Amino acid sequence: MARESFILYKSFYLPIKELTVEEKGQLLDAIFQYHINGKICQLSPVCQMAFNFMRNQFERDDEKYQTVVERNKTNGKKGGRSKENPDEPKEPTGFIGFPENPDAPDTDTVTVDDTVIENKEGKKKSKSFSSPSLDDFKKYFEDNGYSLEVANRAFKGYAVADWHDSEGKKINNWKQKCQHVWFKPENKLDGNPKSKNEITTPKEWTR
What we know:
By secondary structure, the chain is mostly helical. It has 2 domains: 10-106, no CATH class; 134-205, no CATH class. The chain is 41% helix and 2% strand. It has helices spanning 13-16, 21-37, 45-77, 134-143, 148-160, 174-181; strands at 111-112, 115-116. Strands 1-2 form a two-stranded antiparallel ribbon. Strand 1 (111-112) and strand 2 form a beta hairpin. Helix 2 (21-37) runs parallel beside helix 3, helix 3 (45-77) packs parallel to helix 5 (148-160) and helix 4 packs across helix 5.
């Protein structure tokens, strides 16, 4: 059963507030095209990162919606809503407000630097993530001999996506992510800064 509406969370705005008005317009159009026609539009790398982050939340919302629809169908065949949950709210047909933070994806384990963290009760939990400042980001690139222009581009991309990668997964270690994605020979400092078009864009930004 197709939905007639979708939710835009307030938390979506913070990662995209630095985009230009034109970029925000392209992103909004891509969101509507996705929900109406199921179409995935071609976007700039920065807008694509933001769209992928939002798309993962939309898919989680849709899964929850379909679960409610199926449960209501089952209860209808039994003569009405389940007596075990008489106060369960009905699924709305329009916008219902904007939670401060969208639901995080369910997971049984969390890996940080290839290490699974457990709490005292034996449950898995993740270390808190603190996003770096642009100065910290640039210094890390410079200390390792990589272009500051590349650092600026990488920082903007991840900041727009609220420090999630192209698959919507939270970045737990930004230094490790930079090593794997951006620390390439062609992005090294060589005394001849590359033009914007010559900077290597990681594959994860062009999916």
